[in-house]
Amino acid sequence: MKVHEKIRQLRLEKGYSQEVMAEELQISTTAYGDVERGKTELSLSRLEQILRVFGTPLEAFFGGSSTEKLQAENDKLKLENEKLKQENQYWREKFDERLLTELYRIGAATHRERIGFK
């Protein structure tokens, strides 16, 4: 959903008319209507003014707190990291086991050759 569409949706949810919004922002009703129709370039400061009228933080307008999003992503990465550590440990043990088997086989073969067994 585009910014101007979200502004319109939020205004309707709050029960404000375009006239009330224009008055609060000290602009004409036509100018405010252009904002909601996406016909005017919306600056960050104007968006912040609009959101103050609604009592909505900028982060919430764009889908939640950036801190919450970062924390959720961090938690997800921690779980993935733990899974990779466990998988790495599994394969390391398999490798060590295979390496020891091969070293034993090579060592036993060398030892057998030394004493004359083939």
UniProtKB/TrEMBL annotation:
Keywords per UniProt:
Coiled coil, DNA-binding
So which domain of life are we looking at? Bacteria
Residues in coiled coil: 67-94
List, in alphabetical order, the Gene Ontology terms for molecular function in this entry.
DNA binding
* PROSITE patterns, per the entry: HTH_CROC1
- Residues annotated as domain HTH cro/C1-type: 7-61
Q: Does the keyword DNA-binding apply?
A: yes
Does the record bear DNA-binding in its keywords? yes
PANTHER family registered for this protein in UniProt: DNA-BIDING PHAGE PROTEIN, TRACRIPTIONAL REGULATORY PROTEIN-RELATED-RELATED
Name used for this protein in its record = XRE family transcriptional regulator
